[in-house]
Here is the input.
Amino acid sequence: MPSYQEILYEVDGPVLTITLNRPDKLNAFTFTMMNELIDAFDQADEDDGVRAVIVTGAGRGFCAGADLAAGDGTFDYRDTSGREARLEDARDGGGLVALRIFESKKPVIAAVNGPAVGVGVTMTLPMDVRLASDQARFGFVFARRGLVPEAASSWFLPRVVGISQAMEWVMTGRVFPAEEALAGRLVRSLHAPDQLLPAARALALEIAENTSPTSVALSRHMLWRMLGADHPMEAHKLDSRIIWERGRTADAREGVMSFLEKRPAEFPMTVTADMGSFFPWWDERRFE
Here is the structure.
Protein backbone atom coordinates (compact mmCIF):
# COMPACT_ATOMS: atom_id res chain seq x y z
CA MET A 1 0.00 0.00 0.00
CA PRO A 2 1.50 3.38 -0.95
CA SER A 3 2.82 5.68 1.75
CA TYR A 4 2.56 9.46 1.55
CA GLN A 5 3.57 12.53 3.55
CA GLU A 6 0.42 14.67 3.34
CA ILE A 7 -2.39 12.24 2.58
CA LEU A 8 -3.46 8.88 3.98
CA TYR A 9 -4.34 6.00 1.65
CA GLU A 10 -6.44 3.35 3.37
CA VAL A 11 -8.22 0.45 1.68
CA ASP A 12 -10.95 -1.33 3.64
CA GLY A 13 -12.65 -4.01 1.58
CA PRO A 14 -13.70 -2.50 -1.76
CA VAL A 15 -13.48 1.11 -0.51
CA LEU A 16 -10.42 3.36 -0.63
CA THR A 17 -10.43 6.36 1.71
CA ILE A 18 -8.02 9.16 0.85
CA THR A 19 -7.57 11.55 3.77
CA LEU A 20 -5.97 14.97 3.39
CA ASN A 21 -3.56 14.84 6.28
CA ARG A 22 -2.24 18.20 7.45
CA PRO A 23 -4.65 18.68 10.34
CA ASP A 24 -2.53 21.33 12.07
CA LYS A 25 -2.90 23.46 8.90
CA LEU A 26 -6.57 22.58 8.24
CA ASN A 27 -5.18 20.40 5.44
CA ALA A 28 -4.07 23.40 3.40
CA PHE A 29 -3.13 22.46 -0.16
CA THR A 30 0.54 22.20 -1.18
CA PHE A 31 2.44 20.95 -4.21
CA THR A 32 3.30 17.83 -2.22
CA MET A 33 -0.38 17.17 -1.57
CA MET A 34 -1.12 17.81 -5.25
CA ASN A 35 1.40 15.23 -6.42
CA GLU A 36 0.30 12.71 -3.82
CA LEU A 37 -3.37 13.04 -4.76
CA ILE A 38 -2.58 12.52 -8.43
CA ASP A 39 -0.53 9.44 -7.60
CA ALA A 40 -3.24 8.10 -5.28
CA PHE A 41 -5.83 8.21 -8.06
CA ASP A 42 -3.32 6.51 -10.38
CA GLN A 43 -2.92 3.74 -7.80
CA ALA A 44 -6.68 3.42 -7.33
CA ASP A 45 -7.32 3.00 -11.05
CA GLU A 46 -4.76 0.20 -11.22
CA ASP A 47 -6.26 -1.71 -8.26
CA ASP A 48 -9.28 -3.77 -9.31
CA GLY A 49 -10.00 -4.43 -5.63
CA VAL A 50 -10.89 -0.75 -5.18
CA ARG A 51 -14.48 -0.18 -6.28
CA ALA A 52 -15.09 3.30 -4.87
CA VAL A 53 -13.04 6.19 -3.46
CA ILE A 54 -13.92 8.46 -0.54
CA VAL A 55 -11.98 11.71 -0.04
CA THR A 56 -12.09 13.41 3.37
CA GLY A 57 -9.93 15.51 5.68
CA ALA A 58 -8.11 14.82 8.93
CA GLY A 59 -9.02 16.79 12.02
CA ARG A 60 -11.63 19.54 12.00
CA GLY A 61 -11.14 20.73 8.42
CA PHE A 62 -11.52 19.32 4.94
CA CYS A 63 -9.14 21.73 3.21
CA ALA A 64 -8.64 25.42 3.99
CA GLY A 65 -7.41 26.19 0.47
CA ALA A 66 -3.89 26.88 -0.70
CA ASP A 67 -1.18 27.08 1.94
CA LEU A 68 -0.44 30.81 2.23
CA ALA A 69 2.82 30.41 4.14
CA ALA A 70 4.73 32.23 1.37
CA GLY A 71 2.77 35.39 2.11
CA ASP A 72 2.14 37.85 -0.71
CA GLY A 73 4.27 35.72 -3.04
CA THR A 74 2.12 32.61 -2.67
CA PHE A 75 0.69 32.86 -6.18
CA ASP A 76 3.72 34.48 -7.83
CA TYR A 77 4.98 31.76 -10.15
CA ARG A 78 8.73 32.16 -10.08
CA ASP A 79 11.43 29.59 -9.57
CA THR A 80 13.88 29.67 -6.67
CA SER A 81 16.21 32.02 -8.57
CA GLY A 82 13.40 34.54 -8.98
CA ARG A 83 13.00 33.84 -12.68
CA GLU A 84 9.39 34.09 -13.80
CA ALA A 85 7.85 30.96 -15.31
CA ARG A 86 6.80 31.15 -18.94
CA LEU A 87 3.07 31.66 -19.36
CA GLU A 88 2.82 28.67 -21.69
CA ASP A 89 4.34 26.45 -18.98
CA ALA A 90 2.11 27.65 -16.15
CA ARG A 91 -0.14 24.89 -14.83
CA ASP A 92 -2.62 25.38 -12.02
CA GLY A 93 -2.00 22.71 -9.37
CA GLY A 94 -5.63 22.45 -8.36
CA GLY A 95 -6.49 22.01 -12.01
CA LEU A 96 -4.10 19.10 -12.36
CA VAL A 97 -5.83 17.37 -9.44
CA ALA A 98 -9.31 18.15 -10.78
CA LEU A 99 -8.44 16.82 -14.22
CA ARG A 100 -7.02 13.62 -12.70
CA ILE A 101 -10.18 13.06 -10.68
CA PHE A 102 -12.23 13.72 -13.82
CA GLU A 103 -10.31 10.91 -15.54
CA SER A 104 -10.90 8.42 -12.70
CA LYS A 105 -12.32 5.00 -13.55
CA LYS A 106 -13.68 4.67 -10.02
CA PRO A 107 -16.62 6.59 -8.53
CA VAL A 108 -15.44 9.33 -6.17
CA ILE A 109 -17.35 10.51 -3.09
CA ALA A 110 -16.37 13.62 -1.13
CA ALA A 111 -17.00 13.49 2.62
CA VAL A 112 -16.55 17.16 3.53
CA ASN A 113 -15.95 17.10 7.27
CA GLY A 114 -15.16 20.78 7.88
CA PRO A 115 -14.15 24.02 6.17
CA ALA A 116 -13.66 23.64 2.40
CA VAL A 117 -12.44 26.90 0.92
CA GLY A 118 -10.72 27.82 -2.35
CA VAL A 119 -9.11 24.74 -3.82
CA GLY A 120 -10.57 22.89 -0.84
CA VAL A 121 -14.00 23.16 -2.44
CA THR A 122 -13.08 23.32 -6.14
CA MET A 123 -11.21 20.00 -5.93
CA THR A 124 -14.49 18.33 -4.91
CA LEU A 125 -16.40 19.47 -8.00
CA PRO A 126 -15.22 16.65 -10.31
CA MET A 127 -16.06 14.16 -7.56
CA ASP A 128 -19.32 12.41 -8.30
CA VAL A 129 -21.19 12.91 -5.03
CA ARG A 130 -20.51 15.31 -2.15
CA LEU A 131 -21.70 14.62 1.39
CA ALA A 132 -20.97 17.11 4.15
CA SER A 133 -20.92 17.48 7.90
CA ASP A 134 -23.49 19.93 9.18
CA GLN A 135 -20.47 21.77 10.63
CA ALA A 136 -18.82 22.22 7.23
CA ARG A 137 -18.43 25.61 5.56
CA PHE A 138 -17.66 26.44 1.95
CA GLY A 139 -16.20 29.38 0.10
CA PHE A 140 -15.24 30.27 -3.46
CA VAL A 141 -13.15 33.12 -2.06
CA PHE A 142 -10.95 33.92 -5.06
CA ALA A 143 -12.24 37.43 -5.80
CA ARG A 144 -11.54 38.37 -2.18
CA ARG A 145 -7.90 37.38 -2.72
CA GLY A 146 -7.45 39.15 -6.06
CA LEU A 147 -7.63 35.84 -7.93
CA VAL A 148 -10.10 33.95 -10.10
CA PRO A 149 -11.63 30.45 -9.82
CA GLU A 150 -9.19 27.63 -10.52
CA ALA A 151 -9.14 23.81 -10.65
CA ALA A 152 -11.24 24.03 -13.84
CA SER A 153 -14.12 25.14 -11.60
CA SER A 154 -15.41 27.62 -14.18
CA TRP A 155 -16.35 24.47 -16.14
CA PHE A 156 -17.44 22.25 -13.24
CA LEU A 157 -19.27 24.60 -10.87
CA PRO A 158 -22.03 25.85 -13.23
CA ARG A 159 -22.66 22.27 -14.32
CA VAL A 160 -23.03 21.13 -10.71
CA VAL A 161 -25.16 23.96 -9.29
CA GLY A 162 -26.31 26.08 -12.27
CA ILE A 163 -24.90 29.33 -13.58
CA SER A 164 -26.77 31.78 -11.32
CA GLN A 165 -25.86 30.01 -8.08
CA ALA A 166 -22.28 29.62 -9.27
CA MET A 167 -22.10 33.33 -10.12
CA GLU A 168 -23.42 34.40 -6.72
CA TRP A 169 -20.92 32.32 -4.77
CA VAL A 170 -17.98 33.30 -6.99
CA MET A 171 -18.79 37.02 -7.25
CA THR A 172 -19.36 37.52 -3.51
CA GLY A 173 -16.53 35.23 -2.43
CA ARG A 174 -18.33 34.71 0.85
CA VAL A 175 -17.93 31.71 3.12
CA PHE A 176 -21.31 30.04 3.58
CA PRO A 177 -22.69 27.30 5.85
CA ALA A 178 -23.48 23.70 5.02
CA GLU A 179 -27.21 24.42 4.88
CA GLU A 180 -26.69 26.88 2.02
CA ALA A 181 -24.50 24.34 0.20
CA LEU A 182 -27.33 21.82 0.49
CA ALA A 183 -29.97 24.29 -0.70
CA GLY A 184 -27.73 25.23 -3.64
CA ARG A 185 -27.23 21.54 -4.55
CA LEU A 186 -23.49 21.67 -4.02
CA VAL A 187 -23.82 18.76 -1.58
CA ARG A 188 -26.18 15.80 -1.64
CA SER A 189 -26.83 15.52 2.12
CA LEU A 190 -25.78 16.77 5.55
CA HIS A 191 -24.78 14.57 8.45
CA ALA A 192 -23.76 14.83 12.07
CA PRO A 193 -19.95 14.82 12.21
CA ASP A 194 -19.75 11.26 13.57
CA GLN A 195 -22.16 10.00 10.90
CA LEU A 196 -20.49 11.54 7.84
CA LEU A 197 -17.95 8.82 7.02
CA PRO A 198 -20.40 5.98 7.76
CA ALA A 199 -22.87 7.59 5.34
CA ALA A 200 -20.18 7.99 2.68
CA ARG A 201 -19.07 4.40 3.18
CA ALA A 202 -22.64 3.11 2.95
CA LEU A 203 -22.99 4.81 -0.44
CA ALA A 204 -19.62 3.46 -1.58
CA LEU A 205 -20.62 -0.07 -0.55
CA GLU A 206 -23.97 0.21 -2.31
CA ILE A 207 -22.02 0.83 -5.51
CA ALA A 208 -19.35 -1.78 -4.83
CA GLU A 209 -21.69 -4.62 -3.86
CA ASN A 210 -24.32 -4.28 -6.57
CA THR A 211 -22.80 -3.08 -9.80
CA SER A 212 -20.39 -4.02 -12.55
CA PRO A 213 -17.12 -2.08 -12.11
CA THR A 214 -16.73 -1.65 -15.86
CA SER A 215 -20.33 -0.48 -16.23
CA VAL A 216 -19.79 2.11 -13.50
CA ALA A 217 -16.54 3.33 -15.07
CA LEU A 218 -18.10 3.65 -18.51
CA SER A 219 -21.26 5.27 -17.16
CA ARG A 220 -19.24 7.78 -15.14
CA HIS A 221 -17.40 8.97 -18.24
CA MET A 222 -20.50 8.95 -20.42
CA LEU A 223 -22.37 11.27 -18.06
CA TRP A 224 -19.50 13.67 -17.36
CA ARG A 225 -18.35 13.93 -20.95
CA MET A 226 -21.84 14.36 -22.41
CA LEU A 227 -22.16 17.59 -20.41
CA GLY A 228 -20.20 19.19 -23.24
CA ALA A 229 -22.11 17.62 -26.15
CA ASP A 230 -24.07 19.95 -28.41
CA HIS A 231 -26.99 17.59 -29.14
CA PRO A 232 -28.55 14.44 -27.60
CA MET A 233 -27.72 12.64 -30.83
CA GLU A 234 -24.12 12.51 -29.61
CA ALA A 235 -25.28 10.55 -26.56
CA HIS A 236 -27.48 8.30 -28.68
CA LYS A 237 -24.59 7.41 -30.97
CA LEU A 238 -22.32 6.61 -28.04
CA ASP A 239 -25.01 4.71 -26.11
CA SER A 240 -25.85 2.58 -29.13
CA ARG A 241 -22.28 1.56 -29.81
CA ILE A 242 -21.34 0.78 -26.21
CA ILE A 243 -24.57 -1.14 -25.51
CA TRP A 244 -24.02 -3.14 -28.73
CA GLU A 245 -20.57 -4.16 -27.49
CA ARG A 246 -21.54 -4.62 -23.83
CA GLY A 247 -24.50 -6.85 -24.66
CA ARG A 248 -22.24 -9.74 -25.58
CA THR A 249 -19.96 -9.48 -22.52
CA ALA A 250 -19.67 -11.74 -19.50
CA ASP A 251 -20.87 -8.90 -17.27
CA ALA A 252 -24.10 -8.46 -19.24
CA ARG A 253 -24.76 -12.19 -19.17
CA GLU A 254 -24.12 -12.29 -15.43
CA GLY A 255 -26.35 -9.28 -14.85
CA VAL A 256 -29.28 -10.94 -16.61
CA MET A 257 -28.80 -14.41 -15.15
CA SER A 258 -28.34 -13.18 -11.57
CA PHE A 259 -31.63 -11.30 -11.91
CA LEU A 260 -33.47 -14.32 -13.32
CA GLU A 261 -31.96 -16.62 -10.69
CA LYS A 262 -32.68 -14.12 -7.91
CA ARG A 263 -29.13 -14.07 -6.56
CA PRO A 264 -26.42 -11.42 -6.10
CA ALA A 265 -24.42 -10.78 -9.24
CA GLU A 266 -20.73 -11.64 -9.40
CA PHE A 267 -19.38 -9.55 -12.25
CA PRO A 268 -16.12 -10.98 -13.66
CA MET A 269 -14.86 -8.05 -15.75
CA THR A 270 -12.29 -5.51 -14.51
CA VAL A 271 -11.47 -1.91 -15.35
CA THR A 272 -7.80 -2.71 -15.88
CA ALA A 273 -8.49 -5.27 -18.63
CA ASP A 274 -12.06 -5.10 -19.90
CA MET A 275 -13.16 -1.55 -20.68
CA GLY A 276 -13.89 -2.45 -24.30
CA SER A 277 -12.87 -1.18 -27.71
CA PHE A 278 -14.80 2.09 -27.41
CA PHE A 279 -12.88 3.26 -24.33
CA PRO A 280 -11.62 5.89 -24.49
CA TRP A 281 -13.81 7.35 -27.22
CA TRP A 282 -12.44 10.88 -26.91
CA ASP A 283 -9.22 12.50 -28.07
CA GLU A 284 -6.87 13.42 -25.27
CA ARG A 285 -6.90 17.15 -24.55
CA ARG A 286 -3.43 18.67 -24.29
CA PHE A 287 -2.35 21.82 -22.47
CA GLU A 288 -1.23 24.18 -25.23
Summary: The mean pLDDT is 94. Residues 130 and 162 are 16 Å apart (CA to CA). The chain is about 40% helix and 15% strand. The chain has two domains: 7-207, 212-288.
